[in-house]
Automatic annotation (TrEMBL):
Protein source organism: Novosphingobium marinum
EC number: 5.3.1.1
One Gene Ontology term of the molecular function aspect: triose-phosphate isomerase activity
Catalytic activity field: L-erythrulose 1-phosphate = D-erythrulose 4-phosphate; D-glyceraldehyde 3-phosphate = dihydroxyacetone phosphate
Name the record gives this protein: Triosephosphate isomerase
Domain of life, per lineage: Bacteria
Amino acid sequence: MSNLPYIVGNWKMNGTRSMLSEARAIDRSTQRFPGVQVAIAPPFTLINAMREASQMIGVGGQDCHVEASGAFTGDISAPMLRDAGADFVILGHSERRALHGETDELIRDKAEAAQAAGLGVIVCVGETDGERDAGNAESVVSAQLDGSLPRGENGADKLSVAYEPVWAIGTGRVASTDDISAMHSIIRGKLKDVYGEAGDEIRILYGGSVKGENAPEILAIDEVGGALVGGASLSAESFLSIVGAAAPERPERG
Ligand SMILES: O=C(CO)COP(=O)(O)O
């Protein structure tokens, strides 16, 4: 398990082949930041081309089906992602929970299927503003973790958790450093409960309006092991400013 800071771009439903130039630029510049693990999850249609166009960055899916194959029109399985060149998959993003009715149980089944196919997994959790205002942020996130973390024998392998408060996604509102710190500590405690010592090694990413300007402060918070970045991952320039903020040292020349 790597302990490098992990900066992951989630392109969501954005990107056609013309945007591969951004991925190439990110890939080239990533060589200057050997202390950072960088990845992009493009739409399914770009996974294979992005894999072939890049050398340094990880490439991932944004969802997968529980089954390996079958009569599931429009779905993509974990072995298919692997076959297309993906290294990992994002699961349980709040947009999938809200817009596709994904339950914790389904997310857990997907996570176990993805791990069985050899993919790394990023399980996303996060409360809505209503849940936070009602004082339930911690209990909501804890319940999501209880329900959606993979439990197989090797459940902690290549697993990351992304804390993405729903109200911070695409809104320009970032959780306060105190709130991020408090929630990441709770998540760490839960990971240790579930996985024992291995729970200490799992990276906990923050997501929600991360930009180059706020990345240094967010990435400096204890227990923040990286960032899951939406809008700012769509251009090489803005994404690389976040990668640079995660670099433990000055970039190598190149
Ligand atoms: O949902 C996100 C990443 O998965 C965050 O999106 P933004 O960075 O656009 O707020």
